Amino acid sequence: MSTLMITALVLGALFIIIILVYVSQQVEYRKLEKARRKAELTERIRRCADLSEILPGQMMTPALKLMMSLVELKLSLRLQPMDPDNQALSERIEELEILIGQGDSITVRNPPQQILNENKAKEVRFLLEGLHGMISRAAKENLLSISEARHWVGEVRHMLVQLHIDFFTNIGVQLLQHDKPRQARLAFERAVQFLRKQTDQDRYRTELRTLAQHLAHANDLALEREPTVEKPDELTVGLSQEEIDDPWKKKQVYD
What residue intervals traverse the membrane (predicted)? Predict the structure, then answer.
């Protein structure tokens, strides 16, 4: 056998080995990518379902429940071909299809939650930020139309405003109950200040009137007391002044 023939055989063998290694790597990459995609979809479905169940009842409407169920269904249908033997997933898809079929009559079982302290306010704020992120990504992946996403981003902003109203109102009422009218006045002043910075003043006219009444009452009580300096109370800390000034600093995708 000539040297040329041996060289050709060696090069041929090396080429075959390279091709086999490349094919093997591609197969492994596809497996890893499929596993990654499956895990990602599973986590997104879980977060969507959790949000739908744990958002405070005063913020969850039938329309919002319907939208979240639709997004969860579309994500679940994407996952199903990757996990065809998942019986729980199949049952959840059937359940979601029934819920969506109810339309505006969809059942909302979320109980209302009182926002009585800073930790609770920040917990609900975190949920709203998660909802905002879910809506933004759903729009990018055509699970929601751009117009739908804009509408729901606006509703999330409204929920955030309502969160601030509930928080400062409840804190002010608690402080009045603890005979601290000056600090209650501060809480109500922050709420009024926050509402007056909203662009849609008509939407919050009733809330602003109620808070103004609370503020006037707290001010009257404070004036009746001797001019003493009250110690700072953790109830008056609330959300940071930065959050009061601009409670939605995250990038607005659909403005």
Answer: 6-24
Distance (Å, rounded) from C-alpha 98 to C-alpha 66?
11
Q: How does pLDDT run across 147-205, given as a tens digit for each residue? A: 999 999 999 999 999 999 999 999 999 999 999 999 999 999 999 999 998 988 888 99
Q: Tokens 């930020």 belong to which residue?
A: 129
Q: Which pLDDT value is given to residue 36?
A: 87
Q: Nearest to residue 110, comparing CAs of 91, 92, 131, 94?
A: 131
Residue 126, token pair as written in the block: 């975190």
Asked if residue 38 lies in contact with residue 82, where contact means CB atoms within 8 angstroms, the answer is yes
Structure tokens belonging to residue 138:
């759903």
First to last CA, the chain: 75
- pTM, 2 dp: 0.77
User: Which residue has tokens 């709203």?
Assistant: 128
CA–CA separation, 155 vs 157, rounded Å?
5
